[in-house]
TrEMBL record:
Domain Leucine-rich repeat-containing N-terminal plant-type: 1-26
Subcellular localization(s) per the UniProt record: Cell membrane
Keywords recorded for this protein, A-Z: Cell membrane, Glycoprotein, Leucine-rich repeat, Membrane, Repeat, Signal, Transmembrane, Transmembrane helix
Species classification: Eukaryota, Viridiplantae, Streptophyta, Embryophyta, Tracheophyta
Family that this chain belongs to: Belongs to the RLP family.
UniProt protein name: LRR receptor-like serine/threonine-protein kinase GSO1
Pfam families: LRR_1, LRR_8, LRRNT_2
Amino acid sequence: MLTDPSDRLSSWQGGNCCNWEGIKCSSSGHVVVVNLRNPNPDEVIINVNKELVLDPNNTSNALNGTISPLLFTLNHMQYLDLSFNNFMLSKLPTEISNLTKLTYLNLSNAMFQDSISTQFSNLTSLRSLDLSCANLVIDLSSITISLTLPPKLDFGSLSSFISYGRLSSPNLRWLEGLRGLRYLVLAGVDLSKASESFHWAKPISSLSNLKSLQFPYCKISGRIPTGLLLNLTKLSILEMSSNALTSSMPDLLSNLTTLSTLDFSSNDLDGHIPYLPQLEELYVASNPAMIINLVSMFSVPWSKLTFVDISFTGVGGTIPPSLSNSTSLTFFRADGCSIQGLIPSSITNLKKLSVLMLNDNNITGQLPVIMSSLTGLQYLSLFQNRLQGQIPISICQIPSLEYLNLEWNELTGRFPSCILQLPKLSYLYIQMNELNGNMPLSLFQKSRLDQISIGASGLSLEIDDQDQPFVQTFQPMILEFTSCNMRGEIPDFFSNLTNLTILNLANNSLSGAIPYWLFNLPSLSVLDLCMNNFEGVIPSTIQLKSSPFPTIINLASNNLQGPIPSQLENVNVIDLSINNFIGLIPTQIGEVPGIRSISLSGNKIHGPIPESFCQQPNILQVLDLSNNSLSGTIQRNLGNCKSLIYLDLGQNKLTGIVPKELERVTSLRYLDLNGNEFEGSFPTVIENFQDLEILNLASNKFEGRIPKFIGNLHHLRILVLASNCFNESIPEGLVKLENLQYIGFSRNNLSGPIPENLDGLKTMMKRQNEATILGYVYSLKFTGAQLEIVTKGQTQLLESVYSYNTGFDISGNALTGKIPEKIGLLSGLPLLNLSHNNLFGLIPKTIGEMSSLESLDLSYNQLTGEIPETLTLLDFLQDLNLSYNNLSGRIPSGLHFDTLYQDGTAYIGNKYLCGAPGGMNCSNNGPSITETVENKYDQENVLFIVVIFLGFVTGLSAVFLLLYLIDDNWRNMYWRAVDRIVLKIVNSES
């Protein structure tokens, strides 16, 4: 039984089937064509949450149900197309083998699920066979929407999404009889089992008439079966992308002289690209081990080459001028290839070029002014390079330009406003540059742009004449104006933007109340107004429109007041943090279907955490209620949030213990409970969080020992347990965590020595890349960590933790022993604080090897000896504190070291340290301070021995004198007592 939403089968009535829609008959009245292809296929969309969704603008026209066996009694049929329907994961009809006259068969994306064996073996007349299981895909995962910080997302191969309606084939022997095949498409068919055989492709080699062979997303592994493919002398298209092929591209492919399209992208190939002069289209993107020398490649003519995609391969070097010799090129893409140098001006010789993409490289210099000669250019994308200079006004002379992306460069000067008047331009991205000047908002209203992103470009956007009439042709889908120095209120004409899906006005100086009509725009799915000066209340009901993107409300960092809205519809992410919201957390907010992220931190809300949070089922992944006045305990129902990756309840008034039910949240990566009144021992539930990267339990009432299992949390990067009552020693396993970058154990009762073997702290051994952000871009929301660090004796709060905020702080404990010599291995540490302990011995010379050190605090210990000369090698050192120890000798001198604390405050409390406040006075002509101290020690030792000797003699004399004066009985009693004491000592030692 089939259901037909598009009413395609309504004509299937009456006795003459030849008049039915999708049916064609021969002159003799036999049905020869059955075309039930979905005329409007559902587009499968990968959204930024790494999920498959259907295009909400499409109404499904797919037939649903199962196919009647009667269809396969039409044994004169030559053409059958059932593609892009939904046959409910049913098996391939066995009766299909009766259609022996079929020349065309298309069952692609029809939601069959079966193992292919002999169903098609009898169809020896077939010329075209398509059994694809990979639906038409629109990949939105690469779209960057800057909300708080721009995400950089990588979702890998699409094959992981192809799970429904998958066909599989344990081998390809069923192909052997189909000698007439010219077109074979098995996209998404699982061939993993088949490809385990060395000769898995042998049945294909017998298809000598084959022109097109397409096997993408088939889980094929091993080498390219070149020898078997060489028999396909008529092959024009070879596509084996998104598999697991591991060999080099063989030079023998050049023997396939009819080959025009070659696609081996998204595999694990290495080696180089062989010279294939007849090739028209080449796709080898996402093979990072493949080395491509563009100079060598284009030193020979590729006269027919039109499409080239070498993205994310090992290119390096520069773009050679010889690229322009391939005058047929229309499409050239080389993203993420480490290309350097200038864009050669000769590229303008590529008169047919319509797409040029060189994103994520190290290209420098200016855009060629003569770019205007590329009159057919439609798509120009150069984001994330190092381009400098001005945007050439000559771009305004490219009338065909539809897409322009120059974001994340170092471009300067004014933006040529004439670009906005290009007749076909729909997409403009220039954010993250160093442009200057003002741009009236009215300039954009006169354009036909569909997506605009100019955030943090250096431009100031002026909200000019509000009274001018609205231009109806201006109906953008995306407006991204972050950090554009916008002032005043949100313009009224925004209320006419009926297509607006994403509006981002973050980090400006906008003020006034947020107009209620903004929440009612008919297409709005993402609204980001964070970091402005908005005030007043917001509606109690907020409804967003469904979208391929996560639906987001971000009003953080404003001056908004009133209660938290209680009714949220179609909201995936809500961020109301750092405002003045008051009252209780509404019960309903935890019950919103599809809610993924809730951030209410930094407000004035109070009361308990609602029990409505984490009612099953739920998909909540981010919950941030920090910096409020919440009270009570952690509700046990939070254990139902099995998708939770980020939980921040810090800086509240929560009490009690961490409930055992949280152990079910095994996906947790970020846990912050700092600044509450939790008590008891270290929470044992944390042992279940094997993916945990950030743990902050500081400023609570936890006590007891730090458990050994902390050394099993191998992903841990930040561990903060400061200001608790933890005791006993630091677990040895802790210093074996290779990813650990911050240890904060200050102000506890820890004792024992610092662990000796620090060579397991691999991340602390290298200076980190300051451009790398530690945290998560989840649903386009940056969730960073907060840390308290102590420098110059003052506590500082780091709002966001970057990968270079590494540190080692175990101050304010009762640790003993020496500072380990291996401390010098931690050369990536900027912060080392061992102060206020009972450490003794010398300062290790190896500290001078900690080349990244910016803050060193060893104060309030019992360290002795001289300050190592190696400390003068620490060029980045800014904060130094060695005060209140027993250091001696001279303070070492160095060009940078001499500038630190010339007032001597870093050395106070070391009375034998030359030049320290209250220390010894040194003279260049006298003995060294070390000799002086040693002499003083010698004098003091001699005096001490003399005094002890005199005291001993005096005391002994007094005893004998006393014994002499008393009678014999007292003398005998005394010596007997002495004998008993000596006897006890001897017996105890033996």
